[in-house]
Every structure is written in structure tokens, then in C-alpha cells.
Amino acid sequence: MRRRNGFVTLAALALLFAAGAMNMAGxxxxxxxxxxxxxxxxxxxxxxxxxxYLSRSDLEGGFWAVYSSPTTSSVVPPKIxxxxxxxxxxxxxxxxxxxxxxxxxxxxxxxxxxxxxxxxILVDGIDAVxxx
Length: 132
Hints:
The protein is α+β, with helices and mostly antiparallel strands.
């Protein structure tokens, strides 16, 4: 009986590992190719992806956010799709993407925020992508 329980435990661990690997595949694959519609998508196990226009907001001490439309647009007021948590992005490097259409992937923050601007993401990767 002991041997069988060990096998069951090993099988369960292998299944959990496979599920985790499938969850990470979306982020590990990198940014999408071709035009991508703006939006926010939360995955399993706390993963998240967001596509939209990157801009820095000066509200509440300043933060980087991904918007549904360009922040310079007067026709469509931009909506914040996600906030990119300070400390999870390279402040110097991300400035080169300011105003561009980007894809960002990471994990949803479980911390408390006073921003009230949308979901907060701990960024694992960010890159410019083709707008639709």
C-alpha cells in the first residue's frame, strides 16, 4: 500500500507541474505577432496580460499604465486597463515605449493600493506590438 501512495503522490506532483508549465507558456511565448486588440486578460494562478497604449500618469506619485486608447486622443477618453507596478519595470527602459502600443505580461499583484486605477501587474515582460 505504501508504494501505491508514493505513485499517486508522484503522479499528482507531475500533474501540478504540467499545469504550471501550461500557465507560464502564455508569458514565456513572448508578445503576440500581428495586430492585437487592446484589452486585459487574467489567467489562472494569478497570471495576466494586457495590450494597449503605454503612458505615464502623474497621479498619486506617478505610475506607468496601459490604456485602451492613446492618452492624447480627444475623441475617445482613454480607460486604464492595468497599472504596471513600480519596481517591476525598468524606469529608464520603459520610457522608450511611452505612447506606443504594447503587450505586457506578468502576475496580478495581491497587494493593497490606493490608486483605484485598475488591476496592478508585476511585470515579467513588456514589448511593443502592432496596433490593429
